[in-house]
Structures are given as structure tokens and as C-alpha cells.
Amino acid sequence: MQVWRIAKARFASDLSGQGAALFGGRWNHIEQRALYFGLTPAICALETFIHATQVPRFPLKIIRVSLPDDPELYWQPSIDQLPEGWDAKPADSPSMDFGSRWLQQRQQLGLIVPSSVMTYESNIMINPDHPAVSQIKILSVADFAYDSRMFSPRN
């Protein structure tokens, strides 16, 4: 399985999950390591774009990663299995509690969840404490820039 991530250049090859532990994320509480990827490059761009208020002034990279192909390493809960409020904006405790419990269980490498930005797309949270994390391979790291029109005022 191939997944993507957009990150500041200096963190492009960091697969420690420490960034999510420092700040928390939609599916993890602070102090819990996790890695977030999109199943498509487009959802990565959309997910990071919603947090930007202007064209980023720092270099960004798009990272393509290979995950092990064993389906047993992933869990994709149905929408009905997700807690009410999982898609709150900003992220709130229902999704953080859910993902944090999943991380603590260490049963799978990846949790595949819908994007709160566009539920037709999916993201994957990787547990860096799962033994299969050693099978993750960075396939490519390339420069990434948003089209400046995305930040232009609209009439």
C-alpha cells in the first residue's frame, strides 16, 4: 500500500511520530506518538491546506511511503463504529479517545479513517510502536507547493 504525507522539509523523513505526540491530532492525544498519512496525495494537500491561512513561507515536501501489504495489519472501522463527534472541527476528545485506545492496543499497524474534511477520502494513522513499522519504506521525497490561486481572494 502506498500513502502520502505533506510536511515541513526538515521533518520529511521523520517517521518517529513525535510531532503528533507534541501537539496531538484528530486521532491521538498529546504524548501519544502517531504518524498521519493520506491514502491519496490530493487528500494530503486538502488536509494541510485547511490549516494554512496564507501561502506557506517555509519549504514543504510531499513524501510517498510504502506500507506492508498484509491486510491483517490494518483496521478500517465503518462510520457506525466511530464515536459521535469524531468529525468535530476542531478535533475533540471523541476521536482522540478512540484513536488513543487503538494506539494503546498495538494490534494493527494502521487505522484507516475517513477524512473530516471530505469523508469520501481516507487517512491512515500509523502506530510507530507496532513491530511492523520496521517494514515502512520512504519511496520518494519531493518539493511541494500549493498553487498560489488557492490563497487568492474570491469574488
Describe the structure.
This protein is of the alpha+beta class and 155 residues long. It has one domain. It contains 3 helices and 7 strands, in the order βαβαββαβββ. The model has no long low-confidence stretch (mean pLDDT 95).
Low-confidence stretches: none
Mean pLDDT: 95
Please state roughly what percent of the residues sit in beta strands, choosing from under 5%, 5-15%, 15-25%, 25-35%, 35-45% or over 45%. 15-25%
Biggest sheet, strands in spatial order? 2-6-5-4
- Terminal-residue CA separation: 41 Å
Radius of gyration: 15 Å
- Taken from the alpha-carbon principal axes, the silhouette is globular
What is the number of strand segments?
7
Helix and strand content put the structural class at: alpha+beta
Q: Figure out the total of helices.
A: 3
Largest sheet: 4 strands, mixed
Specify the oligomeric state.
single chain
Number of domains: 1
